[in-house]
Write a structure and sequence with these properties.
The chain has 170 residues and is an alpha+beta fold. It has a domain of 110 residues: Immunoglobulin-like (Sandwich). Helices cover 15% and strands 29% of the residues. The chain is built from two helices and eight strands, in the order H-E-E-E-E-H-E-E-E-E. It has a four-stranded antiparallel beta sheet with strand order 1-2-6-5, with no helix packed on it. The chain is elongated and about 110 Å long.
Length: 170
């Protein structure tokens, strides 16, 4: 014979009795979040301060700015790990070439120095300390007209580790 058991009066299914399932799910969820947070610190992922991978040579893309008053030179490839304070730019123009901008660190190519250099370095990867893909040079088109040449080097003159250069406006 099959017996039917009556539920005791303290059963969680009894009306008026609270079910503790939401509290249990909350504790489980909190433990999962805690474990994931600990793993996030223990197992390093890609760093937000790293530049995107790039071949180890200088490659830029240039055009006239939208107001036609500056050359816009965007970094497409740059040797990894070079800081703006240790990377230098110089600009020559004319034939025979004459020096328009002496070797100047990219860190000095600021809005504050625009009236002196007429070149601006825009750091479009502010979380990365080094020069990265996407960073940009803005060069005054009136100060440096078409046909100019810009050289990029490490540690100024003489050009140690001369990365290369680019012509603009041709």
């Amino acid at each position: 014979m099959h017996r039917v058991q009556k539920l005791p009066s303290s059963s969680p299914l009894e009306p008026g009795r609270r079910v503790r399932l939401p509290r249990l799910l909350g504790v489980i969820l909190a433990v999962i979040i805690l474990v994931l947070a600990v793993l996030g610190f223990v197992i390093p992922g890609p760093s937000a301060t790293d530049c995107p991978p790039s071949p180890e040579f200088l490659w830029v893309a240039g055009d006239r700015g939208h107001t036609l008053t500056y050359w816009s030179v965007t970094i497409r490839s740059f040797p990894h790990g070079h800081l703006p304070a240790a990377t230098y730019l110089h600009i020559t123009s004319g034939s025979p070439p004459h020096l328009d901008l002496s070797w100047t660190p990219w860190s000095a190519l600021t809005r504050t120095n625009w009236n002196t250099t007429h070149v601006l370095y825009e750091d479009n990867n502010p979380s990365a300390p080094e020069i990265c893909i996407g960073d940009r040079l803005v060069i005054d088109i009136y100060r440096y007209p078409a046909g100019g040449f810009a050289g990029v080097s490490r540690r100024g003159w003489p050009p140690y580790e001369f990365f290369g250069g680019f012509s603009f406006g041709l």
